[in-house]
Automatic annotation (TrEMBL):
GO cellular component terms given for this protein: plasma membrane
InterPro entries assigned: Cation/H_exchanger_TM
Protein name: K(+)/H(+) antiporter NhaP2
Entry membrane topology: Multi-pass membrane protein
Residue intervals of the Cation/H+ exchanger transmembrane domain: 12-390
GO molecular function: antiporter activity
Pfam families: Na_H_Exchanger (PF00999)
Major location (coarse): membrane
Transmembrane segments: 6-23, 30-49, 91-112, 195-217, 229-262, 282-300, 306-326, 338-357, 363-384
Subcellular location: Cell membrane
Annotated source species: Pseudovibrio axinellae
GO BP field: proton transmembrane transport
PANTHER family according to UniProt: CNH1P, NA(+)/H(+) ANTIPORTER 1
Amino acid sequence: MIYQNLTVIFAVVFLYSVTSRWLEQKPVNGALLFCIIGFLLGNDGLQWFQVKLNNETIKTLAELALAIVLFTDAANTNLKVLKENIDLPRRLLLFGLPLTILLGIGAGLALLPGLPVIEVAILAALLAPTDAALGKAVVTDPAVPPKIRGTLNAESGLNDGICVPIVFTLLPIAENPELISALNKMAAKLLAQQIGLGVIIGIGIALVAGQVIAYSFKSKEQSKTWEQVTIVALAICCFSIAQLAGGSGFIAAFVGGLTFGWLDKPYKKKLLDSAEGVGDTLSLMTWLIFGAAIIGSVLHTFTWEILLYSILSLTLVRILPVYLVLHGEPLKLREKLFIGWFGPRGLASIVFAIVVLDANLPGSSVIASTAVTTIGLSVILHGLTAHTFIKALKS
């Protein structure tokens, strides 16, 4: 069975790679396509691709894909434009993100009354992070104003790292309600540790590695073939060392990418192009497994309340806070709505949902089903609307 699965995975990756330019011009993005193929060929379809991986394996694959994507996207960021418009992502992260979580809690209390309040809060927090990789056309298309691209990229690069301590503070309280009295202390300590260590480690590793890479290119110590993996290894080092130290690997990967991009060396683009391909491949493999193994497994808990919550999570719960916190900014209404709409849910939410499943909370299945429904709808809706909404933004 393992060789059959490998055949399906790499046959699909191969076919996508040789038609990628053509497919990227279509409304159906790679994540949606791989989800559909995974579902059709997977455990609940033709069973040509039968996935019996444990949650830790899927979680690790998603984490590695996200770390590489965060690093490369950050390294490609136009820092001058980001600096000039830093107030936009700052507002979204400091005010928009908490408002989104609060609105998500309100929607959950109204629609999912069977879930305890603390578990509703976990659901709202794990669905708050956005995924630039899922809306790649939006953050790479030059037709989108640079300040909007930079804002969405910076927000998605940092909000998952900020949500890590929130989710991991709420989980032990959900398992042991007596810890509620220590909530503020736990959250503050974990938030400072996750963000602080993530930033320090990301900057430190990127600066040291930048010097090593510069020396390697100057002295011609590195062979052409190994250029393909340099940034991949660097991104994963940022992520894994931060995780080992108790910080946020996601923040370390993103900040490390920003630092590496700031170095602005002539070989930067060549190294990043190769790494992007690896990150995209791992991401699409994650979506293939998501379609094959995860979507079908939660369908038995699907309800209209879950569907309605998912729709609200992608619309009102996301768009209203964005609109409110961007009040007073010199942006047109359609630009604010564009930023609000393109908050796709992706790899970070998958990672968090798997962590919650492993915790075996009373409402774990409902949380997982809601997360999968929201992510699935996001893959479809954001994928289908990206090119159309970009054209509308230009008009």
